[in-house]
Amino acid sequence: MEVLQVKGVDKVYGTKDNSVQALKNVSFSVNQGEFIAIVGTSGSGKSTLLNLVGGLDVPTRGEIIIRKHNIASLKRKELTIFRRRNIGFVFQNYSLMPVLNVYDNVALPVTFDKGKHIDHAYIEDLLKELGLWEKRKSFPNELSGGQQQRVAMARALANKPAMILADEPTGNLDSRTTVEVMGLLKSSCKKYSQTILMVTHNEALAQSCDRILHIEDGMLLPEKVMKDGE
């Protein structure tokens, strides 16, 4: 089942002589449960694409359809609610609230969404699954980088979203913790039938995903079909 369709998307910043085309005619679709890597050199447009899919920015042209909703046509308030209920974000810098403990950081997206009852049992399961239950009363500054990233992942999953968008989620982590976080992303992808789009510059991480989207100069390169054993 298709959870995301990106159709003929352009993104232009600035006007006339100062305009920069960050994305040019990008089209692809993603099925539920796929783990997709988005790779490309710095400035190629991969983070722009993630921001557009996440509704943090609006395409200049084209459509982005998530769960049959064209998000570019939603009003700002509708988009905020849609994003909160359908998209989880994991950033390189964790973006945790320093004044909240682990449990409250994870429950935050659900707390914001007045229409949703907090499923405490689900959050407890998430924290146990991610090895954080013992740390639930700790604050972000009392945790290691890897633990903070796991809290960020739990928070992204708390609303049971259609998609998780991860922007260089292992960028600040050492190699051992990177392997651990990738393992957790993959297991959550399978366990919760999550769809994950991950921007990374790490080719080895990209190779372990289901599909790789290569972006160069704002354009999507043709996908190579991976053969078994490659």
SSE sequence, one letter per element: EEEHEEHEHHHEHEHEE
The main β sheet shows up as:
6 strands, mixed
Query: How is the largest sheet built, in terms of strand order?
Result: 6-7-8-3-9-10
Q: Hey, roughly how much beta strand do the residues contain?
A: 25-35%
Write the layout of secondary structure elements.
Blueprint: E1 2-13, E2 20-31, E3 35-39, H1 46-53, E4 61-66, E5 69-70, H2 76-86, E6 87-91, H3 102-112, H4 120-129, H5 145-157, E7 163-167, H6 175-191, E8 195-199, H7 203-207, E9 211-216, E10 219-220
Parallel strand pairs: 3-8, 3-9, 6-7, 7-8
Antiparallel strand pairs: 1-2, 1-4, 4-5, 9-10
Helix pairs in contact: 3-5, 5-6
Short characterization:
With 230 residues, the protein is an alpha/beta fold. It has helices at residues 46-53, 76-86, 102-112, 120-129, 145-157, 175-191, 203-207, and strands at 2-13, 20-31, 35-39, 61-66, 69-70, 87-91, 163-167, 195-199, 211-216, 219-220. Residues 225-230 have low confidence and may be disordered.
How does this structure look, described?
Helix content is 33%, strand content 26%. It has 230 residues and is of the alpha/beta class. It has a six-stranded mixed beta sheet. Strands 2-1-4-5 form a four-stranded antiparallel beta sheet, with helices on one face. Helix 3 (102-112) runs parallel beside helix 5 (145-157) and helix 5 runs parallel beside helix 6 (175-191). The longest helix has 17 residues, at 175-191. The radius of gyration is 18 Å and the shape is globular.
